[in-house]
Amino acid sequence: MKRRVPKPLLIVLLVVVLAYPAFQLFLLGYTGVRMLVAGQETHEVVYKITGTADRPDIRYVRDGHRDSVELKYASLPWESSKLKTKGSAQVLSVSALQQLEDDGSVRCEIWLDGALVESSESAPGTGLSASCTHLP
Fold it and tell me: b vs e for 46-71, b when ≥16 Cβ sit within 10 Å of the residue's Cβ?
């Protein structure tokens, strides 16, 4: 005599076999949406250069990717305007370099959404330069 599988057990097996791939697709879609939303987030960036150096050159990244700005012979203290960047995988960078002989100091800071995320100060005897880079 042939044994039959009870119908409720077949239904449970069918639901499990079909539900697992559907659940995986749901998780993949959820992750994709989270990544898309993170890529659209707007952040506020402020760069600051302080110190006693006499008119250093300042270079900073404006949009977080490729648009850099160079200022020759900037007066200190210097602060960028509030820059808006999109996404979370951005490179934030600012540097100051004193071309002339100077016994002063220079310090750089990166502020992201109102919080200090990176700072650096020139070391004595190594020339006047400071560079800050942050990868959020």
Answer: bbbbbbebbebebbbbbbbeeeeeeb
* Burial status of residue 121 (CB atoms within 10 A of its CB: 0-12, 13-18, 19 or more): middle
- Tallying the residues shown for the chain, one arrives at 136
Asked if 112 and 128 count as a contact pair (C-beta separation under 8 A), the reply is no
Q: Is 6 helix (H, G, I), strand (E, B) or coil?
A: coil
**Alpha-carbon distance values, 49 to 36, 84, 86, 120 (Å):** 33, 19, 23, 10
Question: Could you tell me where the DSSP H helices lie in the chain?
Answer: 7-40
Instruction: Categorize the per-residue pLDDT at 89 as very low, low, confident or very high, splitting at 50, 70 and 90.
Output: low
pTM here is 0.66
Contact 64, 85 (CB under 8 A): yes
- Residue 55 has φ and ψ, to the nearest 5°, of 60, 65
Backbone angles phi, psi at 120, to 5 degrees: -155, 150
Among residues 118, 121, 122, 114, the alpha carbon closest in space to that of 134 is found at 118
